[in-house]
From TrEMBL:
<keyword id="KW-0665">Pyrimidine biosynthesis</keyword>
<dbReference type="InterPro" id="IPR036901">
    <property type="entry name" value="Asp/Orn_carbamoylTrfase_sf"/>
</dbReference>
<dbReference type="GO" id="GO:0006207">
    <property type="term" value="P:'de novo' pyrimidine nucleobase biosynthetic process"/>
</dbReference>
<feature type="binding site">
    <location>
        <position position="55"/>
    </location>
    <ligand>
        <name>carbamoyl phosphate</name>
    </ligand>
</feature>
<dbReference type="GO" id="GO:0044205">
    <property type="term" value="P:'de novo' UMP biosynthetic process"/>
</dbReference>
<dbReference type="GO" id="GO:0006520">
    <property type="term" value="P:amino acid metabolic process"/>
</dbReference>
<comment type="function">
    <text>Reversibly catalyzes the transfer of the carbamoyl group from carbamoyl phosphate (CP) to the N(epsilon) atom of ornithine (ORN) to produce L-citrulline.</text>
</comment>
<dbReference type="Pfam" id="PF00185">
    <property type="entry name" value="OTCace"/>
</dbReference>
<dbReference type="GO" id="GO:0004070">
    <property type="term" value="F:aspartate carbamoyltransferase activity"/>
</dbReference>
<feature type="binding site">
    <location>
        <position position="135"/>
    </location>
    <ligand>
        <name>carbamoyl phosphate</name>
    </ligand>
</feature>
<keyword id="KW-0808">Transferase</keyword>
<feature type="domain" description="Aspartate/ornithine carbamoyltransferase carbamoyl-P binding">
    <location>
        <begin position="2"/>
        <end position="144"/>
    </location>
</feature>
<comment type="pathway">
    <text>Pyrimidine metabolism; UMP biosynthesis via de novo pathway; (S)-dihydroorotate from bicarbonate: step 2/3.</text>
</comment>
<feature type="binding site">
    <location>
        <position position="82"/>
    </location>
    <ligand>
        <name>L-aspartate</name>
    </ligand>
</feature>
<comment type="subunit">
    <text>Heterododecamer (2C3:3R2) of six catalytic PyrB chains organized as two trimers (C3), and six regulatory PyrI chains organized as three dimers (R2).</text>
</comment>
<feature type="binding site">
    <location>
        <position position="260"/>
    </location>
    <ligand>
        <name>carbamoyl phosphate</name>
    </ligand>
</feature>
<feature type="binding site">
    <location>
        <position position="54"/>
    </location>
    <ligand>
        <name>carbamoyl phosphate</name>
    </ligand>
</feature>
């Protein structure tokens, strides 16, 4: 692949390759010397048009640990604020010869559009409600390490599915790897068209969590609800928040996941989130750095090969 814009275009073998390469970086990141040179000489620009803690910091660390020159564009201080369009901003940066562009944008499809205008590798760090591919890959690596496999698992994705790019990318990835995925949440937040992904839909947490191997909780994305129905947090926690009683319906060794940012007491009880015997939320963050290192290494390899091929034809 030239870019990483979503999980949709990836073949299962490509997903497995990213996870296998990431495993090496998990080991490297646990050492005192965390550096290697897969991106030496390359320039990485991070452009985040939406807030981020985990994704932005892990992409920055990933690039630096691989030897890239990393620049974080401050979008608040950029000329976007003076009316410059996304495409003009991209063309301006493209003229500075970056090799990797990492982009988060509130509009679905914006990152794909930008990728068509530049001649470097583009990584989607989350576009609207569409895709968040590195999140799904890091979730997959976390599941594979915790469960010893990434196929034939029963996985419940719970909460605000309608507004979640994390849910969408995970649904696609977990389906490609032949898992059974259930969506659990209020009908207003779990659109029936998600059945097209081959998953079952439940509006009762206890039924939805029955005998699952993995419980993935999602935040209510109020910022994407456009004035539509927003449930009361107390009522939502009572019916759909993960607590010990509801988790008791899952398998005894089921793991609990959350991509963050987490709203304790809304979609998840803080004691469950902090329970190191069940929660793998901190492991997800750790896997995020390794997966982003792997994704950038693989794209950089393709970029170098295609540039060498082009330069070869020009001789
Ligand atoms: N999971 C995730 O994308 O978190 P951030 O918004 O903090 O990057």
């Amino acid at each position: 692949q030239k870019h990483l814009l979503g999980i949709e275009p990836l073949h299962p073998t490509e997903i497995t390759t990213v996870l296998d390469v990431a495993e090496r970086y998990v080991e490297q990141n646990r050492r005192t010397d965390k550096h290697s040179d897969a991106l030496r000489g390359l320039t990485q620009i991070n452009m985040f048009f939406e807030n981020s803690t985990r994704t932005q910091s892990s992409f920055e660390l990933a690039g630096k640990r691989l030897g890239a020159d990393v620049m974080n564009m401050s979008m608040q201080a950029s000329s976007i604020k003076k009316g410059e369009t996304l495409i003009d901003t991209a063309l301006t940066l493209n003229a500075m010869h970056p090799d990797l562009l990492v982009v988060r944008h509130p509009h679905s499809g914006a990152v794909d559009l930008l990728a068509q205008k530049v001649n470097c590798a583009v990584l989607n760090a989350g576009d609207g409600k569409h895709e968040h591919p590195t999140q799904a890959l890091l979730d997959a690596l976390t599941i594979r390490r915790a469960k010893g496999r990434l196929h034939r698992l029963n996985i419940a994705i719970c909460g605000d599915i309608a507004h979640s790019r994390v849910a969408r990318s995970n649904l696609i990835l977990l389906g490609k790897m032949e898992n059974r995925v259930r969506l659990v949440g209020p009908p207003t937040l779990v659109p029936q068209q998600f059945r097209e992904f081959g998953c079952e839909i439940y509006d009762d947490m206890r039924e939805g969590l029955q005998d699952v191997d993995v419980v993935m909780m999602l935040r209510l994305q109020k910022e994407r609800m456009d004035g539509g129905f927003i449930p009361s947090e107390r009522e939502y926690f009572y019916r759909y928040g993960l607590d010990g009683e509801k988790l008791g319906f899952a398998k005894p060794d089921a793991i609990v996941m959350h991509p963050g940012p987490m709203n304790r007491g809304v979609e998840i009880d803080g004691t469950i989130a902090d329970d190191i015997n069940r929660s793998v939320i901190q492991e997800q963050v750790e896997m995020g750095v390794a997966v982003r290192m792997a994704a950038m290494e693989l794209l950089a390899r393709n970029l170098r090969s295609s540039r060498e091929a082009t330069e070869g034809t020009m001789v």
